[in-house]
Response regulator transcription factor (Pseudalkalibacillus berkeleyi), 210 residues
Amino acid sequence: MIRVVFADDHEMVRIGVSSYLSNQKDIEVVGEASDGAEAVDLVLELRPDVILMDLVMKEMDGIEATKRIVDQWPEAKIIIVTSFLDDEKVYPALESGATSYMLKTSKASEIADAVRATHNGEMVLEPEVTGKMMTKMRRGNARPPHEELTNREIEVLMLMTEGKTNQEIADQLVIALKTVKTHVSNILEKLEVQDRTQAVIYAFKNSLVK
């Protein structure tokens, strides 16, 4: 039997999910907690195989409870079960030591499957959470947009920060006006900005102006 402790401050949620899980042949809910502090004490006392942890609870939230449990029992397998998908909840929850992340909108059968998978050492994430993590990883590994600029485009951008017009830039660099317009267009596209003003602001924010 997979022994489970479920922490959630909504009694009806606990009753509904616990009832479904307890009807499974391989799962047993051995304890319930209505707040984070109670969850910490109960988990450390019972040492269940899997913990279902709500995020927003009175006394102590799920993130703090997860941290305290993992600090004292690193082997704990914790599934966050919440209504929140915003970044300030997802990443702190996973960084605190949670193994999996599910939404309360998930079917009870999906939560049961997550319990089994987590017990087997797998990480279970809502598809939307997985998407967020992949996006964050891509952004973290991506080069800054201005590193895509050519040397000539950087020259043009620096002259733009001085407030020079396309014609003045063309005259100073001794290139055709049409060429300057092409450079400006490329700069806006590479920096992912809408206009010259935003490009100039980007240059100052990223310390490109010497």
